From TrEMBL, chain A:
Membrane topology: Multi-pass membrane protein
Keyword annotations of the record: Cell membrane, Membrane, Transmembrane, Transmembrane helix, Transport
Superkingdom, taxonomy of origin: Bacteria
Assigned protein family: Belongs to the binding-protein-dependent transport system permease family.
Localization per record: Cell membrane
Segments crossing the lipid bilayer: 12-29, 65-87, 99-121, 127-147, 168-197, 222-244
UniProt cross-references to SUPFAM superfamilies, sorted A to Z: MetI-like
CDD domains noted in UniProt: TM_PBP2 (cd06261)
Start and end residues of each ABC transmembrane type-1 domain: 61-241
Protein name listed in UniProt: ABC transporter permease
Organism whose genome encodes this protein: Conexibacter stalactiti
Lineage: Bacteria, Bacillati, Actinomycetota, Thermoleophilia, Solirubrobacterales
Length: 262, 281
């Protein structure tokens, strides 16, 4: 018992100290660095403070995040209804399958040149590509979620003769929600990749544009600061999604917990 | 968290396509819909530019795209691009496996080690590897190394996470039972840990394979490393729009081949596993 308590305390200590130790090691190892590629961490943090607190937030972070939000929202608005629709009919899915399989296997960035040709280099192109990149994980997990609905629930709904609308809004979508969130998580990561790349290829603002132009002007501390910022954005967005998921799926966790305890 | 790693979730297959182990019959209801829908899409993309809704300079008719695609099949440059892309993909995936599997096994079976590194992994994992592109270009130039680095960095995380979960998910009762029957460490690894790890690892491998391809093509597109991605962008800048579409078509086909190969492997190695039994009841 005591050994276990000790172990768990040791675990906690390690969990806090190891990341700190890594940052400290980076700080010390890079302190006197004269390497062009790996400037001292202190210099990177200085540059980080100068650019991201807060002069470049409005000019680069906000446009990137707006594009991501728009693309992500469009993807959800298309993928969830389409996923529910395609899982209602075997015939429909058989017809859609080859097209869905092709589009989802196509690496999203390969479509950037196509987007430029078709739509131009504005925000519209980026939002369309972000939406495309986010669409398929959500579509497929929605279908998966609908397919894995408890047969008892399915029969109950049939016995209760719920209207189609009630059936979809009150039973099918909520029951598929845990799976849909797994898709959203994948999509968010893909969406951020699409944001950064589309801004690197053709843009005048955004975090992707920022790091690439810092690199092109050989401002290495700024480039590192931008990379750090993109990392932080990724981390923050994924944390945000976890919060939303916990909130929306509270009933799901609760019902699972009660099923376990009974 | 656990729900996001269940293999069936990300399998992306519409379940129950082959209900109850019935042999798939070659009937019209099965074969016609996909053929009809593909033809319909091709017809639509043939008509859009022909009628003039979209300019043919932006979107050439599908027959021309297919023509160009077929004529590409006999050029050396096309196969060199395919080879470059596959090479970057395979090296990236290979490096990711070499890093993620041993590390995942170690972290999964040593709780203390996992706790020590958990925050570091959780922090590094959501970082889009594309953020590293500018640095990678400076360090490794615009060749194969750069895109392999990106692909390996991106593909390592999904596999690592899956392996860690897989090892941790081993039923402790099974391990204890094995111990009671006097199975040694190696035997327990082979007979208990490995089978319960496999579905997670197979899913992780499939995701890693897709990620590796995505980042290889991205590297080619943004950095300019030779391969399909680079040629697509080259075709755009030289206004060879039809060629651009044909190469995008080729990239999609490469993606389908990789995707379905890994999904088939996943299904084949795991035929016995509950996640692959389609309709149990």
């Amino acid at each position: 018992m005591i050994a276990r308590a000790l172990r768990s305390r040791l675990g906690l200590i390690l969990e806090v100290t190891v990341p700190l130790a890594i940052v400290a090691a980076w700080w010390i190892a890079s302190a006197g660095s004269t390497s062009f590629f790996f400037p001292p961490l202190s210099e990177i943090l200085d540059s980080f403070r100068e650019t991201w607190l807060f002069s470049h937030v409005a000019s680069d972070v906000v446009p990137s995040m707006l594009r991501l939000a728009a693309g992500f929202a469009i993807a959800i608005a298309i993928a969830v209804p389409l996923g529910v629709l395609l899982s209602q009919s075997k015939l429909l899915w058989r017809a859609a399958e080859p097209i869905v399989e092709f589009l989802r296997a196509l690496p999203g960035p390969a479509l950037i040149p196509l987007g430029i040709v078709l739509i131009g280099i504005g925000s519209g192109m980026k939002i369309a590509l972000i939406a495309f990149g986010c669409l398929f994980p959500i579509l497929l997990t929605t279908m998966d979620g609908v397919a894995s609905i408890d047969p008892v629930l399915r029969d109950t709904v049939r016995v209760l003769r719920l209207s189609r609308r009630d059936r979809i809004m009150r039973v099918i979508v909520p029951a598929a929600l845990p799976q849909i969130f797994a898709g959203l998580r994948t999509s968010l990561a893909l969406g951020l990749i699409m944001v950064v790349i589309s801004e690197m290829v053709a843009s005048e603002n955004g975090v992707g544009y920022f790091v690439l132009s810092a690199q092109r002007s050989f401002d290495l501390p700024a480039m590192w600061a931008g990379t750090l910022m993109i990392g932080l954005l990724g981390y923050a967005l994924s944390g945000l999604l976890t919060l939303v998921e916990r909130r929306l799926l509270r009933w799901h966790r609760a019902s699972k917990a009660s099923a376990l305890s009974s | 968290m656990a729900s996001s790693v269940t293999p069936s979730i990300e399998a992306g297959v519409a379940p129950r396509r082959r209900a109850g182990g019935r042999r798939p019959r070659l009937d019209a209801a099965r074969i016609l819909p996909p053929i009809v829908s593909v033809l319909a899409v091709l017809a639509l993309f043939e008509l859009l530019p022909r009628v003039g809704i979209v300019s043919a300079r932006q979107l050439p008719p599908s027959s021309e795209i297919v023509d160009t695609f077929i004529s590409q099949l006999s050029t050396e440059a096309f196969w060199r691009d395919i080879w470059s892309t596959l090479q970057g993909w395979a090296l990236g995936l290979g490096i990711a496996i070499a890093i993620a599997v041993p590390l995942g096994l170690a972290l999964g079976s040593t709780p203390l080690l996992h706790r020590a590194l958990r925050f570091v992994i959780e922090f590094l994992r959501p970082i889009p590897s594309v953020a590293l592109i500018p640095l990678v270009v400076l360090l490794y130039g615009t060749g194969l190394t750069s895109k392999v680095f990106l692909a390996a960095f991106g593909a390592t995380w999904p596999l690592l996470i899956q392996v860690i979960y897989g090892v941790q998910d081993v039923d402790p009762v099974a391990t204890d039972t094995g111990r009671m029957f006097g199975l040694g460490r190696f035997q327990r690894m082979r007979r208990i840990t490995l089978p319960s790890l496999l579905p997670y690892a197979a899913t992780g491998l499939r995701i890693a394979a897709t990620t590796s391809l995505l980042l290889t093509v991205t590297g080619e597109l943004v950095i300019g490393a030779p391969g399909l991605g680079h040629s697509i962008d080259l075709a755009r800048t030289s206004a060879a729009t039809t060629l651009m579409y044909a190469l995008i078509l080729a990239t999609g086909l490469v993606g389908i081949v990789i995707n379905s190969a890994f999904r088939r492997m996943e299904r084949r190695t795991l035929r016995w596993h509950p996640s692959q039994r389609e309709v149990a009841a």
